[in-house]
Amino acid sequence: MECDFHISERRYGSTVHLAPAGEFGFDAGPVWDGVEAGIDGSVDVAVCDMALVRFMDVTGLNRLIAFAEALRARGIALFVVNVRTQPAHVMDLRDDLAERGEAFIGGPAEGLTAALRRTLTDRATAVRNRAADDEGRPVRPRDAQHSV
User: Which of 19, 21, 43, 117 is a good FRET partner for 82, with 20 to 30 A between their CA atoms?
Assistant: First the structure.
């Protein structure tokens, strides 16, 4: 079966906007490898817009985690946005497993989804906190930024 997964990429100065589309699984690895190799030293921020990813399996999630960690190691901030229900469910399952592992070993543990959880969870928390601080004023997009 042929892989229908692809990633559209646009550059806006030092920001790269990535729009993966299709089924994000094992066959998507080489596509991500090409994108990762193409991100040069002039990039400060990467935005991964997941709105067109209709399905993601654990292999796809592991590849996204590896991508996030590789960017973080290079000092590039990653924002993962517009995650649809099914991919979010896979992320939630990994988070639940990480929390159970943490409880089992009796202390905090950095699970494989830590980089994405910081991106998704801390970003949402920061937005809520800033909204509360602003006493209900609309949150500007730049206020919602958090890097991995």
Answer: 43
Q: Which amino acid is at 74?
A: R
Distance CA 61, CA 71 (A): 15
38 SS3 class: helix
Model pTM above 0.90? no
DSSP assignment string, 42-86 = T--EEEEETTEEEEE-HHHHHHHHHHHHHHHHTT-EEEEE---HH
CB-CB contact of 90 with 59 (8 Å)? no
- Name the token pair of 55: 């399905």
SS percent in the chain: helix, strand, coil, step 5: 50, 20, 30
DSSP H or E segment with residue 21: strand 15-24
